[in-house]
Amino acid sequence: MTTVSSYRPNTGRTVELLLLVLVTGIIMLAYANVGLAQTGALPTDMVTYAAGLLGIGLAFHIALRWRAKYADPLLLPIALLLNGLGLVMIHRIDFENTYEGVQAPRQLVWSALSVVFAIVVLVVLRDHRRLRRYTYTFMVGGVVLLLLPLLPFIGDPHYGSRIWIKLGPFSFQPGEIAKILLAVFFAGYLVQKRDVLSLVGRRFLGFPLPRMRDLGPILVAWAFSLAVLVFEKDLGSSLLFFGLFVAMLYVATERVSWIAIGLLMFVGGAYVAWLLFPHLQQRVQLWLDPFATGINQVSMGLMGMASGGLFGTGLGSGHPEITPFAKSDYIVASLAEELGLFGLFAILLMFVLIVERGLRTAIGVRDGFGKLLAAGLAFSVALQVFVVAGGITRVIPLTGLTTPFMSAGGSSLIANWTVIALLLRISDQARRPLAEVDEEEQAAAGAAATQVVKLR
Amino acid sequence: MNSPIRRLGLVAALLFFSVFASSTYIMFFQAKELYNHQGNRRTLLASYDRERGQILVGGDAVARSTATKDDLKWERTYPQGELYAPLTGYFSFIYGAGGGLESADDDLLSGTSDKLFYRRISELISGRQPAGASLDLTINPDAQKAAYDALGDQKGAVVALDPRTGAILAMVSKPSYDPNTLTSHNLNSVTAAWKQLNADANKPMVNRAIAGNLYPPGSVFKIVTSAAALESGKYTADGLVDAPRELPLPLSSKALTNWQNGACVSGKTRITLTQALETSCNSAFGGIGIALGGDALKSQAEKFGFGDTLRIPMRATASSVPAGMDKAQSAQAAIGQYDVRVTPLQVAMTSAAIANNGIVMRPYLVSRVLDDSLGVLDQTQPEQLSKATSSETASTVARMMQSVVENGTGSNARISGVAVAGKTGTAQQGNGRPPHAWFTAFAPVGASADQKQVAVAVVVEDGGSAGQEAGGNKTAAPIARKVIQAVLG
């Protein structure tokens, strides 16, 4: 059916390689900056770190050439850049005497483990559609992971939230991994049910409403996210899960009514929770007036960002350590303080690029499951960055979530590098020229095309 | 499913945009406000990161930073403590900068002022350790010491000015305090000292020369009334004015009495304006106040600088004459009673204007801003604040004031060989409290351009050590004389 042509599509792998070198250079520049500001000398282990960082990037790059040569060339360098800058910032705050102790070496190990894990995912998972077979397994896995911190013995409450588990010496936030498992489940479930959810229903005041019994899934998701909010006291994760579900529901059904219903339900649920829980009322109070209780985490973060101004104090020259959780929840404020507004914009733009590349992959890929999964994963990154950065900059009340790739913490790194691996895998399919699409895929694509029925 | 994915992209873009907008607001538009917000530990730490500039008087530091070995790299010390505390203020880790130049010129001393922009760039390029700018003051250390010692244990203030430039040569406020107790790194002792100073009923941390509860001026205000009378053209120095034994106040059952409890000049009910000032004649000046009206007094006072909030660079409270006074109130205001309120600085500025042909110079405390190798970054240029009177009026009032010292109530300010012009004041407080004793003067009268000249104001609160027996000539004039001698050498 297809003729052999001498045309060789541009895979972008060379661009990726060059970007990896550039990214390594940027991170080493930042590292040198910290060393000069804190000790007055270049760090002695710079060459080792540069080699290690480039090695990690190259290993991934080679895996891509081998197993996913059409994958998006920007995702890997951007993830490596964010990971590297986060590491430098954690290393920089390690110089100060904070009660959290030295965290950079552990974060480095976790980064390497995460990248290795991501490579394994990429190599083992030859086709993302295989995940669809385990839709309900992922659901069970996701729910179990989310509920683990509530169990006695392994649950490890910190700072009023029950989102950690403790296994021996390791502390873990299983919610981060659950995010991916649930995205896979949502994609598998919705691609199956989308016709029912989108086509059947009545109109009310010119507004198409779903049948009552089709409301089941969204009700379950809503109840579940509220349970997370109430029992784990984790507003951030609750917002993330429910937002992710509503967004994927909308993509699957193309019906705005789901968004309206979802928003109403979340606002209603959050309001009731606000009435019931003093710690939520406190968060809202600090959102409206950061100085309401004198100097606190929110106002300290704001003062830190303000002291950075447009150009920042320079890496190693500010006082990010004053703000609590400067390496984890507040790493965005720490970076803003030392890199300034322009540095913060650059970092946020890197996240914008990841989201844009993920959504582009969703548009480009041919199967519905892939579309939903890529869109969901990409949007979850956007939502997570918004919940964190928006909380710090007072767009919304502060909730505790990690900044992808940057915050100190192993579970977050593993989860987000896995997101990158999945997006790379799907983008390999999306960008593969038709000539190489196998017959099975063509059949699938054909079937998908005939499924598009619009009655309205 | 592609169009909802695109719309999802739009939603994501909106989410990011909101964070861009809010961070721009925080880090650009709100940055200065947040940076200066009370309790901002970063601002305080930043000020300890670099060596803070010195405050210099006659080449000696009265405030300087010394290197320490603890977390805060620098400790602020004040070698002359109480003598200069009202000028230096304090720079405390707990309580921030306050009380004087430490806060008024904080941006220069800390090195963050926009005026130091080019220097900061050169520090950046040359890699030198950045340091704050130093301030060289206009203070004459001999005059400052003389004023401080002469005031002794009495409450009050002394201000000395160079009439021709507005440079502040001495500024003393008592009781004073030792700023070193607030700047040590022993936080417990600092907290204790702070509490004690704030609980002290005598308010040692208030600079009485420029702020605090302002003083009623009493008879030193008659200089302003004399100037208003001469400027009106209706009066001359040798022309006769009514000087009754007591002046009935219109629409009131009260009368203005003279401190002599009778005629100002025995046997006379009409005396010259010069005699009225010499004898500090209340009934004569009260009559002039009624004739001129309250508005004329107020407008003349404002030409001397009343009503202006000055920055020297510390904020000096504006002196005031009330508006819309009736005749009785105008009569009282003309002799410095009713609601006329002044700072010692304003009184010194009034004498200085008379000395300087009627021109009021803007008072200033910092003569030069220096970098850490004492190179000059900025030099204050004397500036005219206003024209209070014509030069004829000024020289007439000067002669009248000279006569006060030579023939009248200001005898204790006489210095042999120096033509001193002055005016006493004894401001009654009522309710049985001893009066405030005032004296203001300048010398020498008619100085040539190459001669030093000085204008002084002295106030001793609640009669000082003399109590109810206190008076301007007895209590305040000797202090003014010592300051004048210290300046003229």
Automatic annotation (TrEMBL), chain A:
Q: Could you tell me what reaction this enzyme catalyses? A: [GlcNAc-(1->4)-Mur2Ac(oyl-L-Ala-gamma-D-Glu-L-Lys-D-Ala-D-Ala)](n)-di-trans,octa-cis-undecaprenyl diphosphate + beta-D-GlcNAc-(1->4)-Mur2Ac(oyl-L-Ala-gamma-D-Glu-L-Lys-D-Ala-D-Ala)-di-trans,octa-cis-undecaprenyl diphosphate = [GlcNAc-(1->4)-Mur2Ac(oyl-L-Ala-gamma-D-Glu-L-Lys-D-Ala-D-Ala)](n+1)-di-trans,octa-cis-undecaprenyl diphosphate + di-trans,octa-cis-undecaprenyl diphosphate + H(+)
Q: How does the entry describe its membrane topology?
A: Multi-pass membrane protein
Does Hydrolase count among this protein's keywords? no
Q: Which UniProt keywords apply?
A: Cell cycle, Cell division, Cell shape, Membrane, Transmembrane, Transmembrane helix
Q: In which pathway does it act?
A: Cell wall biogenesis; peptidoglycan biosynthesis
Residues annotated as transmembrane: 15-34, 46-66, 73-93, 108-125, 134-154, 174-191, 235-251, 258-277, 339-359, 371-393, 405-424
Record flagged with keyword RNA-binding: no
Q: Recorded E.C. number(s)?
A: 2.4.99.28
Q: Where in the cell is it found?
A: Membrane
Judged by the first EC level, this protein's enzyme class is transferase
The cross-references to Pfam families, in alphabetical order and at most eight, read: FTSW_RODA_SPOVE
GO biological process terms, alphabetically, are: cell division
User: Mainly resides where?
Assistant: membrane
| Top-level taxon of origin | Bacteria
InterPro entries reported for this sequence:
Cell_cycle_FtsW-rel_CS (IPR018365), FtsW/RodA (IPR001182)
**PANTHER family xref list:** CELL CYCLE PROTEIN (PTHR30474), PEPTIDOGLYCAN GLYCOSYLTRANSFERASE RODA (PTHR30474:SF3)
The protein's name is peptidoglycan glycosyltransferase
Annotated organism of origin: Arsenicicoccus piscis
